[in-house]
Amino acid sequence: MKTADATLSSRVETLRWRDGRLELIDQRVLPAEIVYRSYDSAAGVSEGIRSMVVRGAPAIGCAAAYGVALEALRLVDRAKTEFDARMAEAFTALAGSRPTAVNLFWALKRMRTVLDSMSSAPNPAAAERLLAEAHQVLAEDIRNNRDMGKHGEKLLKDGATVLTHCNAGALATAGYGTALGVIRAAVEAGKRISVVAGETRPFLQGARLTAWELLQDGIPVTLITDNMSGHLMSRGQVDAVIVGADRVAANGDVANKIGTYMIAVLASRHGIPFYVAAPLSTIDLQLPGGEVIPIEERGPAEVRGYADIQWAPLGATVRNPAFDVTPAELVTALITEKGVVEAPTAEKIAALFR
């Protein structure tokens, strides 16, 4: 078996800086094709986030940081007043790209702080400082993911079968992954881990992305439809569940890809530990509980079919919430770069930031 040192995070980059542009691997066409899209503006990156060229909360945050830097580089020759006005527009455009992943807003706040600190500097200096910060955001994400993996792998026993939902791997981050990072770290530690990946309707991130990542690593993976997880749990064929998160409220409630709540309920019913792996940048201390996490509602076409294949009548009414919220009481432990928080509460989560 290959170890996670030879993972997708080192062979295929989710985001990369090339010749003054941001390149994003187009996750809409994986695994059939490996295609990179090139961006040179905040508007372009915003559209890349909205259309899901890039997805996954940490990766969205990294892309947004580069989007700010790109816009500053485009505007270096403009008058200071125009530079400031156009940069404000860039922040607004990026903030409006997707509502649920808090890493987006965390990254924009961080970049805004840097820009404000350079308010009296020439435009080129401000742009270079913003680009350096974007590079730092990416580097920190990979480091945090590896730290999460080291903490979380201790929760997995040798020989465990782990169920995961959606894609929380290298493709959802700057590299290595959150939930899949824990699995990769366990494999690196010499443990025999096999994975059950739910297909993750309607965008099929589990089928298209997670299964592909794990095959790249040589980690055994079994793909199932989303409505099979309860059956496998009832037969004792799942030892643990690990998922990522798009936003964690101050009390430990978790917003993740639609279907996560259902899996957490089933795990609780069958006495199976349910773990969430997420960096501190995914925790939103401003939101007291999951009931106030904004849930993105996407278009009906994603549910009626996929790509050029349509399997539902156009006249059918469609609901397409992209996320759901799992109450903290169903979370066995929250895995962060600072360590593992068992049975997360508001007090335990607040302590992570002290």
How are the SSEs ordered, and which strands pair?
Elements: H1 8-11, E1 15-18, E2 21-25, E3 36-39, H2 42-50, H3 57-74, H4 80-95, H5 102-117, H6 123-152, E4 161-164, H7 179-188, E5 194-198, H8 205-217, E6 221-224, H9 229-234, E7 240-243, E8 247-249, E9 254-257, H10 260-269, E10 274-277, E11 283-284, H11 301-304, E12 305-306, E13 309-310, E14 323-326, E15 333-336, E16 339-342, H12 346-351
Parallel strand pairs: 4-5, 4-7, 5-6, 7-10, 8-11, 10-15
Antiparallel strand pairs: 1-2, 2-3, 8-9, 9-14, 12-13, 15-16
Describe what you observe in this structure.
The chain is of the alpha/beta class and 354 residues long. The chain folds into two domains: 4-145, Up-down Bundle (Four Helix Bundle (Hemerythrin (Met), subunit A)), CATH 1.20.120; 148-351, Translation initiation factor eif-2b, domain 2 (Rossmann fold). The protein is built from twelve helices and 16 strands. The strands form four sheets. Strands 6-5-4-7-10-15-16 form a seven-stranded mixed beta sheet. Strands 11-8-9-14 form a four-stranded mixed beta sheet, covered by helices on one side. Strand 4 (161-164), helix 7 and strand 5 form a beta-alpha-beta unit. The longest helix has 30 residues, at 123-152. The protein is globular and about 65 Å long. The termini are far apart. Residues 1-10 have low confidence and may be disordered.
